[in-house]
Specification:
The chain is α+β, with helices and mostly antiparallel strands and 231 residues long. 19% of the residues lie in helices and 28% in strands. The protein has six helices and twelve strands. It is globular and about 45 Å long.
């Protein structure tokens, strides 16, 4: 089997032209959706939810893909590595810049390894904007990363907010899952909008109020809220 660095570099050359041909993205830190697009999302939300559930396995790239991708919300799959090995791409098309000191480590990761995203607790990396860590659950190693490019909005694995209930601190994603957000972070949820892209991370035990298993990363605002999946 080819090393990850060779296998995924080759894969990236194809995915950049085939998978991500329509590369409209959720831009980290700023909303790019127009008012018309937001209204369209709200008006067609039910239809999109049903359609995504029926057609998620019929995406032209993912049909008969080996190895099969992992569909747990907080478990991610590597689908590409940049030629310089300084950026990883996961299943929703988002690209993550790797801290230079960690580039060597990622060359040992394989495309079959499950990846978790957690908040980075390193102060030095925080000031360099490497706000997150990717943990390889197979090798039990980690790398520090920053979100370089947001998810592809047309990618079936990209999650967006379908509805928000600010009173109960609940959100519904476009895959029709319901999430209970930490009520003490209501002031963050109050700024979220329907259509914002979400990447689901893992809430580590070191965080205050660790009764929440997940960390919802709002790509458009680069904010995180702790949450649990209800259904």
């Amino acid at each position: 089997m080819l090393p990850l660095s060779k296998y995924l570099t080759i894969a990236l050359l194809f995915t950049s032209t085939i998978v991500f041909a329509d590369d409209t993205r959720a831009e980290p830190g700023s909303r790019k959706l127009t008012e018309e697009q937001k209204k369209d999302i709200e008006q067609n939300q039910k239809q999109e939810i049903v359609s995504s559930q029926k057609n998620i396995h019929n995406h032209p790239y993912y049909v008969d893909q080996y190895p099969p991708l992992i569909f747990d919300h907080n478990t991610h799959s590597i689908v590409g590595l940049s030629v310089l090995k300084d950026r990883l791409i996961i299943e929703d098309g988002s690209e993550w810049k790797i801290k230079p000191e960690d580039i060597q480590e990622v060359t040992y990761w394989k495309e079959t390894h499950p990846i978790l995203i957690v908040k980075n607790d390193s102060f030095s990396s925080y000031f360099q904007n490497y706000l997150y860590k990717m943990i390889n659950a197979k090798t039990n190693t980690s790398i520090e990363v920053k979100l370089h490019l947001g998810p592809i909005l047309q990618n079936k694995y990209t999650l967006q907010i379908a509805a928000i209930n600010p009173y109960s601190c609940e959100v519904i994603f476009t895959d029709n899952t319901l999430w209970q957000c930490n009520p003490s972070e209501y002031y963050l949820l109050d700024k979220w909008l329907v259509g914002d892209a979400i990447i689901v991370g893992t809430n580590t035990k070191g965080w205050f109020n660790n009764t929440y298993d997940y960390m919802l990363i709002n790509v458009n605002l680069l904010q995180e809220i702790k949450a649990n999946r209800i259904e």
